[in-house]
Amino acid sequence: MKPNRGIFLVNLGSPDSTSVADVRRYLREFLMDERVIDTNPVLRWIVINCFVLPRRPHNTAHAYQRIWTDRGSPLIATSRNLQQLLQQQTSLPVALGMRYGNPSIRSGLENLRAQNPHLEEILLIPLYPHYAMATWETVVIKTKEDLASLGWNIRLTVLPPFYNQNSYLEALTTSIREQHHATDYLLFSYHGVPLRHLKQEDPTGCHCLASPNCCQTPSTAHASCYRHQCYFTTEQVAKRLSLAPGQHSTSFQSRFGREPWCQPYTDEELIRLAKSGVKRISVACPAFVSDCLETLEEIGMVGKESFLANGGESFRLITCLNEHPRWVETLRDWSEHFPANWN
Fold first, then answer.
1. Which has more confidence, 3 or 319?
2. What CATH number is associated with residue 252?
3. What pLDDT is attached to residue 209?
């Protein structure tokens, strides 16, 4: 263990409240990120400010109201609990930041140094298992920018995407096994991304834009492709759970706009499965380590309603890793020993 290392956990973020004003402020920061909507900056500004923000915040605020708790945003509350549990298991200082909203990445960095003024290294842990421009990459870039603006002479070490790490896969499998029972089918639903992002992230090997079957064979697909990484996670967890091919599948949620995104789409897949005779289903969302609006409302509420309305009889949302003891232990081991324990 490196005594002058600090641990910096960074997650997506949430609005400060469910008010339309706070949701609009949050969406503006999120959607104006060039790695989320990677179009011409002028066009992005026009689309977001003239078409999206006048309408979308009202619906999004209503969605947040459906999942909001006495502790506020479930994602923020869970992330804070995770930070505290990890801190209880390590002597290294642990801080938390959000890519959008509060606590900000900059405030998290300042918190970390306040805990140890002699800090020499920060281990950044983006809380995303898979690599994508709009998740893992934007966290890393923003952290580097804020650290540079602070002018500190502190080394930044970045934990890579951990979709293929045995300790993560074992923790995820344990969590799913504890919840997936008395159902016919397990659907792995991942956050979707535009297909053209896959080509940008893996320009030499990924053909997802041209072929819907590209990257569905994890053993032969390009490892730097987000879609491949998702299929790899599904394959590894299904193998550990001893699931047959007809007992599980992979889909992608939360598409935005009209261009093609990763398929199959979760909302369509839930309807198809219900109509094909699947009566009892569990849905896991491994693209997230903390439950959030997408998992709790989009899948756990809207997805459930759709599945039951089309012939399904039982729907179970598998919660994310959240504060699971195996997940906390995994983070502790990475925090204290990375990169020595990276397989």
1. 319
2. 3.40.50.1400
3. 52
> Count of domains in the chain?
2
**One-letter identity of residue 215:** C
**158 pLDDT more than 90:** yes
The proportion of the chain whose per-residue pLDDT surpasses 70, expressed as a percent, equals 92
Q: How far apart are CA 37 and CA 156, in angstroms?
A: 27
> How far is the C-alpha of 112 from the C-alpha of 261, rounded, in Å?
38
Beta carbons of 124 and 8 less than 8 angstroms apart? yes
Does the pTM of the predicted model rise above 0.90?
Answer: yes
Structure tokens at 135: 């998740």
Split at pLDDT 50, 70, 90, the class of 216 is low
Dihedrals phi, psi of 123, to nearest 5 degrees: -95, 105
* SS3 label, residue 290: coil
Whether the Cβ atoms of residue 280 and residue 300 lie closer than 8 Å to each other: no
Is the distance from CB of 289 to CB of 226 less than 8 angstroms? no
What is the DSSP code (8-state) at residue 245?
G
Which residues, 6+ apart, have CB-to-CB distance to 145 below 8 Å?
A: none
Range of the domain at 289: 181-317
Tokens 């935005």, residue? Answer: 256
Query: What local confidence, expressed as pLDDT, does residue 214 receive?
Result: 59
Write out the two tokens for 45: 């500004």
Cα-Cα end-to-end distance for the chain? 18
Pair 338, 123: CB distance under 8 Å: yes
Q: Is residue 273 exposed (0-12), middle (13-18) or buried (19+ Cβ within 10 Å)?
A: buried
Query: Domain for residue 9, yes or no?
Result: no
- Phi and psi dihedrals of 280, rounded to 5? -125, 120
